Amino acid sequence: MASATLNAKRELLGLSLEHLQELVAELGEKPFRARQLYEWIYKKGVRDFAAMSNLSAAFREKLTASTCTSSLETHRKQVSQRDGTSKFLFKCADGELIESVF
C-alpha cells in the first residue's frame, strides 16, 4: 500500500491559488508559475498540461509526472418522467462512485 501512495499523483482541481503556490515551490519553480497554472485551470478550463503554452516544457513535464487534473466521468444518468429530475452516478478517477441529483 505504501508504494501506491508514493506513486499517486496530486490532484490539482480544487486547490486554491495559495496551495498551487506551495506546490509550485515544492516543484522548484518560480512563484509566478502558480498564477499561470491557476488561470489555465480555473479561468480557461484547460486540463491538458500540453495545451498550457506559456508554461515551460520542463514545468509541464514535472506537472505531468507528479499531478493530475481529473474530472468526474458520467457513469449513468436517469431522468424522472414525473418531474424531470436528473440523477447522475459519477465515477471518480480512483473508481469510487458519487451519486448526485439535479
Description:
By secondary structure, the chain is an alpha+beta fold. The chain folds into 2 domains: 2-68, DNA polymerase, domain 1 (Orthogonal Bundle), CATH 1.10.150.530; 72-102, no CATH class. The chain is built from 4 helices and 5 strands, in the order H-E-H-H-H-E-E-E-E. The chain has helices spanning 2-7, 17-26, 32-43, 57-66, and strands spanning 10-11, 67-68, 73-79, 86-91, 97-101. Helix 2 packs across helix 3.
Detail the topology: elements first, then pairings:
Layout: H1 2-7, E1 10-11, H2 17-26, H3 32-43, H4 57-66, E2 67-68, E3 73-79, E4 86-91, E5 97-101
Parallel strand pairs: 1-2
Antiparallel strand pairs: 3-4, 4-5
Helix pairs in contact: 2-3
- The rounded distance between the terminal residues' Cα atoms is 37 Å
CATH topology of the largest domain: DNA polymerase, domain 1
- Overall mean pLDDT: 89
Structural class: alpha+beta
Strand order of the largest sheet: 3-4-5
**What overall form do the CA principal axes indicate?**
elongated
What are the low-pLDDT stretches, counting only 5+ consecutive residues below 50? 1-6
**If classified by CATH, what would the architecture of the largest domain be?**
Orthogonal Bundle
Number of spatially distinct domains: 2
Q: What portion of residues is helical? A: 25-40%
Order of helices and strands: HEHHHEEEE
Q: What's the multimeric state?
A: single chain
Mind describing the biggest β-sheet? 3 strands, antiparallel
Strand content: 15-25%
Number of helices: 4
Q: Which CATH first-tier class of the largest domain would you pick?
A: Mainly Alpha
Instruction: Write down the Rg.
Output: 17 Å
Q: Count the E strands.
A: 5
